[in-house]
Amino acid sequence: MKFKLISCEIFYRELCTAVARSPHMVDAEFLPKGLHDIGTAGMRERIQTAVDRIDASMYDAILIGYGLCNNGIVGLSSRDKKLVLPRAHDCITLFLGSKERYLDYFQNNPGVYFQTTGWIERGAANGELTQLTVGQKLKMNQTFEQLVAKYGEENAQYLWEQLGSPEKNYRKMTFIQMGIEPDGTFEQIAAEKAQERKWEYEKVPGEMGMFYRLVNGIWDEREFLIVPPRCRVMATYDDAIIAVEESRP
Questions:
Q1: Contact at 8 Å (CB) between 10 and 118?
Q2: pLDDT score of 2
Q3: Which residues touch 222 (CB under 8 Å, ≥6 apart)?
Q4: Per-residue pLDDT for 142 more than 80?
Q5: How many CB atoms lie within 10 A of CB 166?
Q6: How many angstroms from the chain centroid is the CA of residue 161?
Q7: What is the mean pLDDT of the chain?
Q8: How far are the Cα atoms of 42, 68, 96, 109 from residue 237, in angstroms, in the given order?
Q9: Which parts of the chain are beta strand (E)?
Q10: DSSP letter assigned to residue 221
Q11: All residues at 6 or more sequence positions from 169 whose CB lies less than 8 Å from its CB, including other chains
Q12: Over the range 10-37, which residues count as b (16 or more CB within 10 Å of their CB) and which as e?
């Protein structure tokens, strides 16, 4: 079989490894990580555009390498080929191997900030996407002094406390080791970041299974959603995470 894969570049190393070992032919296209930062509508539009330009006659299915990710895939559809998506709250679900493991770890480790090779080497938006990020729209890429000059000290203090320091809610750094790292450099970077912030640090083993099953065509309905042509992805806000919204007449 032949698949087209549209994925966030945060999964670049993992999916390239899986594609290289897949029994199927998989053509991969990676979109910038910065799509996560431009808002739900903007992210969906960019992914939908990538899907729409695919020559569907060349493929048996279109694979989507995204989690629900702040509803960025809600409304996604394909005219001619089925879409296959992981049932994942966000990318960490795939790195940890299942939505159940993700929820268990998250609930038992409040204030955790995850790191992987992708988040370390591709974690910042750049180029044109920088101008579209939520932080840019809220002017929170400015220094505290710039906010004071524009909004006054009292308002600037409030903005800075509420939005200016997103790291304030974290107290633990967890590096997910996927087994595809070339050496210990990425882990060292994560550990150093934790030390700089005076956070607790932990390394946990990741799980490549969802990546392999996605590109190998092993799509159990408990783990993946198959969306028929002209139907759309919808969020369910329950354990299923996503479901099929039937096409309207």
A1: yes
A2: 98
A3: 87
A4: no
A5: 10
A6: 26
A7: 88
A8: 21, 10, 20, 22
A9: 2-8, 25-31, 61-65, 83-86, 112-115, 172-177, 200-205, 224-227, 232-235, 242-245
A10: T
A11: 111
A12: bbbbbbebbbeebeeebebebbbbbbbb
